[in-house]
Amino acid sequence: EAGVVQSPRYKIIEKKQPVAFWCNPISGHNTLYWYRQNLGQGPELLIRYENEEAVDDSQLPKDRFSAERLKGVDSTLKIQPAELGDSAVYLCASSLDPIAEAFFGQGTRLTVV
Amino acid sequence: RKEVEQDPGPFNVPEGATVAFNCTYSNSASQSFFWYRQDCRKEPKLLMSVYSSGNEDGRFTAQLNRASQYISLLIRDSKLSDSATYLCVVNIGSNYQLIWGAGTKLIIKP
């Protein structure tokens, strides 16, 4: 069975430019997470979806970040405009339900220059 | 106080030794607990869930102490390949928030 698929793996952009990340969760997983991870730190939740509904977006910087999960399957995370401090690894994860273990994609390493 | 706390390490341990880490959590309503392993520049991968009765998987043993609000991970007969960062995760509250620790770095030396 395929795992969580993310693209792109790496992205380098100039500040103030937009960027988008894509995630395809494990089939049948209703819960989808977007995390941001900086070096030496644990993952920081940006947003959690239950099916197509965003149930926890309290940590999402809504002035520049947006996310969607149309049809409750694939999801995209967008940053516009990007800032230097947005450089990090963006991880997507999915789980069967919110109390089950989460499985991660390989992440997108974003560098803003 | 952070909601989930771990000793960042690094723990430098000789091959074959036994090593243990703890992870403390502050919310007594926490419902589920996990240990993840993360290799350098890789994504976190589930190592094991932590059950109330404790659980064991080969050389790895996880324990939950609800009274003192911590979970532990014990690694016996450590291997070079065990070198990684170990992250604990706690699921809390009615909104099922997953709170991650910052991880404990383990280095196994030959």
Question: Care to describe what's here?
Answer:
The complex is a heterodimer of chains A (113) and B (110). Chain A has 113 residues and is mostly beta strands. Chain A is built from no helices and eleven strands. Chain A is globular. Chain A starts with a strand and ends with a strand. The model of chain A has no long low-confidence stretch (mean pLDDT 94). Chain B has 110 residues and is an all-beta fold. Chain B contains no helices and eleven strands. Chain B has strands at 4-6, 11-14, 19-25, 32-38, 45-50, 55-57, 60-65, 70-75, 84-92, 97-100, 104-109. In chain B, the strands form two sheets. In chain B, strands 2, 4, 5, 9, 10 and 11 form a six-stranded mixed sheet that branches. Chain B has a five-stranded antiparallel sheet with strand order 1-3-8-7-6, with no helix packed on it. Chain B is globular, with a radius of gyration of 13 Å. Classes of the chains: A mainly beta (113), B mainly beta (110). Chains A and B meet through strand 5 and strand 10 of A and strand 5, strand 9 and strand 10 of B.
Please sum up the structure shown:
By secondary structure, chain A is mainly β.
Tags for this entry?
heterodimer, A: 113 residues, seven-stranded mixed β-sheet, 11 strands, B: mainly beta, five-stranded antiparallel β-sheet, globular
Low-confidence stretches of chain B: none
N/C terminus separation of chain B: 36 Å
Round the mean pLDDT of chain B to the nearest integer and report it.
Answer: 92
The sequence of SSEs of chain A as H and E is EEEEEEEEEEE
Q: Let me know the number of strands of chain A.
A: 11
Percent of residues in helices of chain B comes to: under 10%
Taken as a percent bin, the fraction of beta residues of chain B is over 45%
DSSP helical segment count of chain B: 0
Strand content of chain A: over 45%
Query: Which H/E pattern describes the elements of chain B?
Result: EEEEEEEEEEE
Low-confidence segments of chain A, ≥5 residues, pLDDT <50? none
The biggest beta sheet of chain A, please?
7 strands, mixed
Largest interface: A-B, 20 and 22 residues
Radius of gyration of chain B: 13 Å
